[in-house]
Design goal:
The chain is α/β, with parallel strands linked by helices and 322 residues long. The protein has 2 domains: 4-12 and 186-320, Rossmann fold (3-Layer(aba) Sandwich), CATH 3.40.50; 16-181, Thiamin diphosphate (ThDP)-binding fold, Pyr/PP domains (Rossmann fold), CATH 3.40.50. The chain is built from 14 helices and 14 strands. The two termini are 19 Å apart.
Length: 322
Amino acid sequence: MIPESVKKILSDGNEKVATRQAYGETIARLGEKNKDIVVLDCDLSKSTKTSIFAKKFPDRFFDFGIAEANMMSAAAGLATMGKIPFVSTFGVFASKRACDQVSSSIAYPGLNVKICATHTGISVGEDGATHQAIEDVAIMRAIPGIIVISPCDGTETEKVIETIIDYSGPCYIRLCRGGSPLIFNDNYKFNIGKGVKIFEGDKATIISAGFTTHIAYSAAKELEEEGIEIDLINMSSIKPIDTDLIIESASKTKLVITVEDHNIIGGLGSAVCEVLAEKNPTRVIRMGIKDKFGASGSPSDLISSYGFDKESIVKAVKNNIG
């Protein structure tokens, strides 16, 4: 069941938008109002959509070529001068290639740098394993002081970018390549550290983030049609995570299923398990990439092959309720 209060913030789902596209458009719009915003990229501006900002504000856009570590260090320097650097590249490069600079130059001094990484998860598709970031949440979540957010759609991406402008400190925003249906409308408000319960029921709890929320949303609708009502929580704020909402839902349903386009080790599922192990021991089933590398293929085929498509989620709920 969708609560009445939630219906007011839900979209009709007819429009598809890539979160990277929403990011590019939002940062360009915000750049008109805030002259301290600068954008850095590594020869990928057409793909990350920072090219939208670059065309409007060429004097505030910096392309570092294939030099991600250097870009992070430069962003740190700009932040010390009062600028608000938005740093973009693919998730694999932001999290692994530039990890040392992110940790030592940005997180350790607590600088106000916003890392907006695109092309994350196996939903990248045909680009294959080397370009599919499946460890980035685990890496960034383990670095002290960085908040980690994985918006579920274009609307939430816009709200996230607007919010982190006013947040002083390092952020990692996880964005996707492909388009997905809009779940929220413009009435939606994003809050760091808070999840949103989209469906409400007592049979099971599904917690998802990012690209997988629209898959879990479809699964929740199918389950409801069959008389199985569940809690569906969009947990875009992975760090800090909404501990109270997780405990409240798990206490009621006694079964939690996490869904993520990421390795189940170190990502959303691990974050939820940490909360419940310490506060409210509950059975948890983690759905996502089970400690394997990605592969080349269409996003839908890969998601099905790796076992977190709609049918797999529905089956997991049915096989484990009661």
